[in-house]
Amino acid sequence: MYDVHTHRAETNVDDIKISANDVQVYYGDTHAIKDVSIEIEAKCVTAFIGPSGCGKSTFLRCLNRMNDTIDICRVEGQILLDEEDIYDKRVDPVQLRAKVGMVFQKPNPFPKSIYDNIAYGPRIHGLANSKADLDVIVEKSLRRGAIWDEVKDRLHAPGTGLSGGQQQRLCIARAVATEPEVLLMDEPCSALDPIATAQVEELIDELRQDYSVVIVTHSMQQAARVSQKTAFFHLGNLVEFGETGKIFTNPEDPRTESYITGRIG
Amino acid sequence: MTDASIHSPASGGKSSLLALDARTKRRNAAEARFRMYGISAVAAGVFFLVVLLGAILSNGVGAFQQTFLTVEVYLDPAKLDKKGQRDIADIKKVSTFGYTPLVQQGLFDQIEANGIETPLAKRKDMKALISASAAAQVRDFVIANPDRIGDKVEFRVLTSSRVDGYLKGRVTRESVARDKNIKPVHLDLVDSFTDLGIIKKEFNWSFITGADASESRAEQAGMGVSILGSFFMTLVVLALALPIGVAASIYLEEFAPQNRFTDLIEVNISNLAAVPSIVFGILGLAVFIQFAHLPQSAPLVGGLVLTLMTLPTIIISTRASLKSVPPSIRDAALGIGASKMQAVFHHVLPLAMPGILTGTIIGLAQALGETAPLLLIGMVGYIATNYPEGIASGFMDPNSAMPAQIYEWAKRADPAYYERAWGGIIILLVFLLTMNIIAIILRRRFERRW
Ligand SMILES: Nc1ncnc2c1ncn2[C@@H]1O[C@H](COP(=O)(O)OP(=O)(O)OP(=O)(O)O)[C@@H](O)[C@H]1O
Ligand SMILES: [Mg+2]
């Protein structure tokens, strides 16, 4: 059943967007990520799977330096975005995060209007020259977030007044509004119903045209449906990384096999 | 599975939902008892509050009324301007002692004019009825209007505090027996004058707007100047404590690294909040007055001392309200490429605003009601006697503050001052209440319900 989408894998493989080498992450004394090396391609969806607590979110947060906000977190190794080291001293994480957007596991809209939620990013990055520009960006982003039809009549209602699933799509729309090059999504569908999930998955597939997308998911089906590459994490190690079709049909590592067949995790 | 039988109340039999088992009964009884404790605690609190407010009101309301007498004074040129030149310098040479007989005469004439029978046959007997401030009031009028010399002018002057007390029931015929200042015959005269409407009790604006007066002129003393003192002090506190406190809290909460040093600062701030206010007073005395040579008794110094005292309160409450903003909001802002500063100022601070404002206003209210540190920097005593001339002198000239003024009055011997102390407390409470209401309104306004 997993081989339905494997034909998507034939992307231009040589186009590497992010490349991580020997990344170690420590929370104080806890060694949360061990020796992870991975290459994330441009215009491709990469899925991170693995049992709870294995470090998927931690690694994802390394990619846009959100871990900087955690005092006890320490990152070692090298992560290159377009061949530039994002942990270089000269790199301003703020600039990095404008390029590498993020959608969080829990929907976290600002306590402002729906419009302002979307418009905030473009405003601070100076992407719109006029109110009309901004209106266009807001509409486009909300459409891409598959939520436009539901909110177009109440753009100035509070974003926190939406349902959980709507809030998550709002957050996705907010993340794409700043036109990032890479979009990191940490279990974006964990609060969504199957219909909204399908919409988000469709959106991810569409985003792939322009961006590279990294998605953490607990749903093997989702990983199989949306991703071209899959990385399996276990206890802080990257156990296996490869074409999604291959991981799900013919995994090399026994741990991967037991996980996708439901024996661990 | 096996332990189910241990918990089932009736061995073997099925328990009914309609009959309470022993455990439930005990639990319900405990809950009912706890409710009773709570209700009685609240009732006790309300009782004491009502008693307190009742005491304050019944003791203090009198201060808001004052007894005045209307008297026609003949501004005798022979006494007030002997040379007849209407030269203002000459007129100013006549002190209030020159005016006192004129005022007394004015009142004395009323006895005959109204046919009142009294054994008081001398003009000087009127002294007991009239406030010493009356002569000064007439003198001020004459200096302002020298052309009225020679006329008969009607004045509304204060009665002495004994007469005032008599009309308010504070002074009785029994208490007068031991009083050197006033005799029962005077009181008879006061009764007659009251019937004629010459002596009247009226609302006393000058208690709210006036300056402090000397020991012997309780009837003249007011809170006005010390209210200004408190006002300037509160301005200093607001201008210093709010920005410093909020900036310090934002830095400590959002930017500072978590290390030993910041931990130490944190502990010290919490400790400072618990330091008795008199310690801040002596610190202010040593640092601001003895070392920095700032003027004594000045609202500026008082404000600085109270700033030190309020800062910990503001910092603690600001940090608490910053902490209560969910971290996911910060993540959201950082995640779309906002800088830390943008995240804080665009998203965190607006959400924390109600808490910050509440904390600040509570801190200010605390500062407004603080007395002890002011004693040490000399803001207490007979000093709130002159209105400041302009903004600078408002900060730098010796002044008192509302609570210090109340304390000062409570110390004085005359029972009329005791009444004023209670009245002052009413004014102070009105200010504090207003500030709390402002705090509530601001919190409502800034609170986002989404
Ligand atoms: N802020 C933190 N402080 C200390 N330890 C942390 C922190 N965040 C994560 N960890 C630890 O790092 C490890 C990896 O956590 P992470 O959140 O990355 O797991 P995950 O794979 O995303 O799990 P899940 O699927 O449940 O979200 C866990 O053992 C966790 O306890
Ligand atoms: Mg996670």
From TrEMBL, chain A:
NCBIfam families membership: 3a0107s01c2
One Gene Ontology biological process: phosphate ion transmembrane transport
GO cellular component terms, A-Z: membrane
Annotated source species: Pelagimonas phthalicica
Keyword Phosphoprotein included in the entry's annotation: no
Tree of life domain: Bacteria
EC numbers for this chain: 3.6.3.27
Descriptive protein name: Phosphate import ATP-binding protein PstB
Molecular functions (GO terms): ATP binding; ATP hydrolysis activity; phosphate transmembrane transporter activity
TrEMBL record, chain B:
Transmembrane region(s): 34-57, 227-252, 272-294, 300-322, 343-365, 421-442
Residue ranges of every copy of the ABC transmembrane type-1 domain listed in the record: 227-439
Localization per Swiss-Prot or TrEMBL: Cell inner membrane; Cell membrane
SUPFAM superfamilies reported for this sequence: MetI-like (SSF161098)
Major localization class: membrane
GO BP, sorted A to Z: phosphate ion transmembrane transport
InterPro entries noted in UniProt: DUF3333 (IPR024573), MetI-like (IPR000515), MetI-like_sf (IPR035906), Phosphate_PstA (IPR005672)
Membrane association type: Multi-pass membrane protein
Gene Ontology cellular component terms for the protein in this record: plasma membrane
Short name of one Pfam family: DUF3333
Entry keywords, A to Z: Cell membrane, Membrane, Transmembrane, Transmembrane helix, Transport
Superkingdom assignment: Bacteria
PANTHER family attached to this UniProt entry: PHOSPHATE TRANSPORT SYSTEM PERMEASE PROTEIN PSTA, PHOSPHATE TRANSPORT SYSTEM PERMEASE PROTEIN PSTA-RELATED
Family (UniProt): Belongs to the binding-protein-dependent transport system permease family. CysTW subfamily.
NCBIfam families: 3a0107s02c
Name listed for the protein in its UniProt record: Phosphate transport system permease protein PstA
Organism: Pelagimonas phthalicica
Gene field: pstA
